[in-house]
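Q: What residues go here?
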């Protein structure tokens, strides 16, 4: 008897660590040095967690030996609650806060608690693919709405509304966006919330990059934007606080909680099944959310992250046949390849050839559930010198394959 994988996995993909990534690991085992521009892992490139967070976690290690409340430590949840209160959210209580092992776990939790077979969730395209896979694994159907490249990658509100059916249960909003780097206009965020109100849907807002903003961009959080529909807002320590390996995330419930008592019972049940989130990391959440925000130093025009964004963006747009919307947030570029000007068949062909010939690893646009086959994502986290070298090799790669 042969043991086979679940058929639920057949239509799902996670190309950030997919076949090309496995090819890169093989090349590394053979002795080749690979420049990894495929995953947003700040610590791997010297973006270290602030010392005060490390210190508080170390000082509390002995206190973290036992299980915590399934929703999370009181102090951590209170810090999250007060953070959103400081941003003008009134209708939030400590029982509305859940701590998770990163936002990734919480994404799976909120979908599993909600979806029956064939229920639909509206997800942006391009998206962070974990949303699509989590919907599929929960038995639901991901339905992708358009984010318009010509409008700075803002979601198309008309397209969202046109795709709502009697089976639609919620709308996912990723803002700032991975992979495009878009930071959505206030009218767009409010428009999505109004659509959710009208059609009695839940809004799921992934705001993990809410402090990584460039060029005076303003982030508008969904938390507290409506009292007429349920809004689930997510954040965490991975990006803003460069603590990806600590796996510390949170979500808050605002809005029409009275209409979602059964769903909230489901969330609490699933949170209890995993006993609790990583307790050690929770001792750093209060420290992270309070006091000076060190990410501010990195995203100013003189900051390291900003300078790396600008270098990679400026180098790319100088290449004939390559266009790119300048990112307003996050840590990614999502360039477009004019396939008529190169001999690449599609984004997958480009990504594989770049790895094999230049030893640079990026992710093709189709890995983000983007229907067009002519985009790819770059992570601009390496130090300027290493990033500049990688971008020069990429530019040479385009020239080598120019028609």
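A:
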């Amino acid at each position: 008897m042969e043991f086979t994988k679940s058929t639920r996995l057949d239509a799902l993909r996670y190309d950030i660590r997919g076949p090309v990534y496995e090819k890169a690991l093989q090349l590394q085992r053979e002795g080749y040095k690979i420049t990894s521009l495929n995953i947003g892992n700040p610590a791997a490139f010297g973006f270290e967690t602030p010392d005060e967070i490390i210190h508080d976690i170390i000082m509390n290690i002995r206190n973290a030996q036992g299980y915590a409340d399934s929703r999370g430590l009181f102090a951590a949840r209170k810090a999250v609650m007060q953070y959103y209160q400081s941003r003008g959210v009134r209708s939030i209580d400590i029982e509305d806060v859940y701590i998770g092992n990163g936002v990734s776990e919480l994404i799976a939790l909120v979908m599993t608690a909600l979806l029956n077979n064939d229920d639909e969730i509206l997800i942006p395209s391009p998206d962070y693919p974990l949303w699509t896979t989590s919907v599929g694994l929960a038995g639901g159907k991901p339905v992708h709405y358009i984010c318009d490249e010509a409008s700075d990658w803002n979601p198309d509100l008309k397209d969202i509304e046109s795709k709502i059916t009697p089976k639609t249960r919620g709308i996912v909003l990723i803002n700032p966006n991975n992979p495009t780097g878009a930071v959505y206009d206030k009218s767009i965020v409010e428009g999505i919330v109004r659509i959710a109100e009208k059609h009695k849907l839940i809004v799921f807002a992934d705001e993990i990059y809410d402090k990584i903003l460039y060029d005076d961009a303003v982030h508008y959080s969904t938390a507290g934007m409506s009292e007429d529909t349920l809004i689930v807002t997510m954040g965490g320590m991975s990006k803003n606080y460069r603590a990806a390996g600590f796996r510390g995330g949170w979500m808050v419930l605002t809005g029409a909680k009275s209409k979602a008592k059964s769903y909230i019972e489901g969330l609490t049940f699933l949170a209890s099944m995993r006993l609790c989130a990583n307790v050690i990391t929770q001792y750093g959440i209060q420290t992270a959310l309070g006091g000076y925000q060190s990410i501010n130093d990195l995203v100013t025009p003189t900051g390291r992250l900003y300078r790396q964004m600008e270098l990679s963006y400026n180098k790319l747009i100088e290449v004939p046949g390559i266009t790119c919307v300048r990112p307003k947030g996050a840590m990614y570029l999502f360039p477009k390849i004019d396939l008529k000007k190169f001999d690449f068949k599609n984004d997958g062909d480009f990504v594989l050839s770049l790895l094999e010939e230049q030893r640079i690893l990026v992710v093709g646009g189709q890995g983000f559930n983007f229907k067009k086959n002519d985009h790819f994502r770059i992570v601009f986290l390496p130090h300027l010198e290493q990033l500049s070298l990688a971008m020069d090799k990429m530019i040479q790669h385009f020239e080598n394959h120019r028609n």
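A: Context that may help when evaluating the design: The chain has 14 helices and 15 strands. Residues 83 and 289 are 7 Å apart (CA to CA).
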